UniProtKB/TrEMBL annotation:
It comes from the Bacteria. This is TIGR02285 family protein. SUPFAM superfamilies: Periplasmic binding protein-like II. InterPro entries: CHP02285 (IPR011972).
């Protein structure tokens, strides 16, 4: 293998639920399990934007430049991913949000990229339900949760960012509807479409993409940022907190440090343009400066 970092010409290929990438001498290589899930704009397993996610494009680059491992891609839901990351077998998740609880069991990479933070989605016909909690086009989440008047859909074991997670942890349980399935956001959107769940949290590109997969119109939905939450959410890779996991993170950071500066930005641009084309809202570019490592 050459020492030139392989970005151009590598196609994102998360095609099967478990795929092996072998290189010369890989029979004796340590197995590294990559844990992925369908989570636009990071990874897209189905629909019109299949394999166009930011991690869809990045993961083959990491694999190509880490030939010392036997790479396995495994599709899991968020709860299963966290369970495996707390084990002893070498596993890495390339699309993680940092929080204090996870950092006890997971070692994190350098920041990979920034996403617009999670927000609240609601059917436009139901916007009056949250009107008392909307100020300057953002939702006062603590007030909404304290009122216990509107159900909020969540994905089990998912982090929505440190600030939002803190508000959810303080919330009464009654207004929270937690979904544990493999396609939780898709199921929550279907419940919302049927009028059984007023609101849910997620990334706007994620909600748009999932709505398309299920034949639902995202134009029928309104999306609100969360008042007080950071505008952007940093995404990291995380591995099992073992000597092998620490070594894998060192290797991942080496690859990330050699990527062309515009490589990830080009993948992000695709989603900014898709956002604008889908509903006409203005989308500012994502921050150029990377957030600091936790």
């Amino acid at each position: 293998m050459t020492k030139r970092w392989k970005w151009r010409g590598i196609c994102a290929g998360l095609i099967t639920s478990a795929m092996f990438f072998c290189t010369p001498g890989a029979l004796a290589a340590e197995k590294l399990i990559w844990l992925v899930r369908d989570l636009p704009p990071m990874a897209v397993h189905d629909g019109p934007n299949k394999d166009q996610g930011i991690i869809d494009r990045l993961l083959p680059v990491l694999i190509a430049n880490m030939p010392q491992y036997e790479h396995v891609i495994q599709r899991v839901n968020r709860a299963r991913s966290l369970q495996m990351l707390e084990g002893q077998e070498l596993a890495c998740d390339p699309m993680l949000v940092w929080n204090q609880s996870r950092a006890q069991h997971i070692v994190y990479s350098s920041p990979i990229f920034g996403l617009r933070s999670n927000g609240l989605a609601i059917r436009r016909t139901d916007e009056q339900l949250i009107a008392p909690f909307v100020h300057d086009q953002a939702v006062d989440l603590p007030a909404l949760l304290s009122a216990q008047s509107v159900k909020l859909g969540l994905v089990a074991k998912r982090s929505y960012g440190v600030w939002i997670d803190d508000q959810l942890s303080k919330s009464p349980t009654d207004p929270l509807f937690i979904h544990y399935g493999n396609d939780a956001i898709g199921s929550l959107l279907q419940m919302q479409h049927a009028g059984r769940l007023p609101t849910l949290l997620g990334y706007w590109p994620e909600i748009q993409s999932k709505a398309k997969q299920y034949g639902l119109s995202s134009k029928a939905l309104a999306f609100y940022p969360i008042q007080g939450a950071p505008a952007y959410q940093t995404i990291y890779a995380g591995c099992t907190k073992t000597p092998q996991g620490q070594k894998a993170i060192t290797d991942i950071n080496t690859v990330l440090g050699h990527l062309p500066r515009d490589s990830i930005a080009s993948a992000q641009t695709f989603w900014i343009q898709a956002d604008q084309a889908d509903d006409g809202r203005a989308s500012a570019p994502l921050p150029v400066q990377e957030p600091t490592v936790p």
